[in-house]
C-alpha cells in the first residue's frame, strides 16, 4: 500500500450509498463500498479464503460475514475474525468530493473510515 492511488474510482453520489447496502464495483479485483451508520469504507470484495463476494454477506457493525464459510472481516482494517479465512483483504481510502464518493484504490484506509460529510 502507498499514499499514491493506483487509480481513483468515482462511485456514486454519497446519498445513493444507503447504510448497510454495499455497492459492488465490477473492477479487477472487485471492490465493495460500504456505509456503516454514516461512515464509509471500501475493501477488496473477494473473500481471502475462496471466491465469495463479501457484498453478499451480512453486516453487523463494522464486520461483514462471508456468505460461504462465515469468516467475518473488519471493514476498518480488512482483518478476518474467525476461521477459515486467515488473510486480510485490502482496504482502500474513501473520500467525498463535491458529494461524490471516490475510492483511492491502493491507498490503505484510515481505520476510522470517512464520514459521509467528507
Ligand atoms: S469463502 Fe469466505 S470464509 Fe470461505
Description:
- The chain is mostly beta strands and 118 residues long.
- It has a single domain (7-115), classed as Rieske Iron-sulfur Protein (3-layer Sandwich).
- The protein has no helices and eleven strands.
- The strands form two sheets. Strands 1, 2, 3, 4, 9, 10 and 11 form a seven-stranded antiparallel β-sheet that branches. A four-stranded antiparallel β-sheet has the order 5-6-7-8, with no helix packed on it.
- The protein starts with 6 loop residues before the first strand and ends with a strand.
- The mean pLDDT is 96.
- The protein binds FE2/S2 (inorganic) cluster.
- FE2/S2 (inorganic) cluster binds at residues 47, 49-50, 52, 66, 68-69, 71, 84-85.
Q: What's the arrangement of secondary structure elements?
A:
Blueprint: E1 7-13, E2 23-25, E3 31-36, E4 39-44, E5 58-60, E6 63-65, E7 72-74, E8 80-81, E9 91-97, E10 100-105, E11 114-115
Antiparallel strand pairs: 1-10, 2-3, 3-4, 4-9, 4-11, 5-6, 6-7, 7-8, 9-10
The structure holds FE2/S2 (inorganic) cluster (FES).
Amino acid at each position: 500500500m502507498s499514499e499514491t492511488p493506483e487509480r481513483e474510482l468515482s462511485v456514486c453520489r454519497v446519498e445513493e450509498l444507503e447504510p448497510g447496502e454495499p455497492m459492488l464495483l465490477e473492477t479487477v479485483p472487485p471492490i465493495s463500498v460500504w456505509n456503516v451508520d454514516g461512515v464509509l469504507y471500501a475493501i477488496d470484495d473477494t473473500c481471502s479464503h475462496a471466491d465469495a463476494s463479501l457484498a453478499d454477506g451480512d453486516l453487523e457493525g463494522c464486520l461483514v460475514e462471508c456468505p460461504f464459510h462465515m469468516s467475518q472481516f473488519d471493514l476498518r482494517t480488512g482483518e478476518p475474525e474467525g476461521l477459515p479465512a486467515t488473510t486480510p483483504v485490502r482496504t482502500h481510502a474513501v473520500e467525498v468530493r463535491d458529494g461524490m464518493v471516490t475510492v483511492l484504490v491502493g491507498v490503505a484506509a484510515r481505520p476510522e473510515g470517512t464520514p459521509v460529510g467528507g
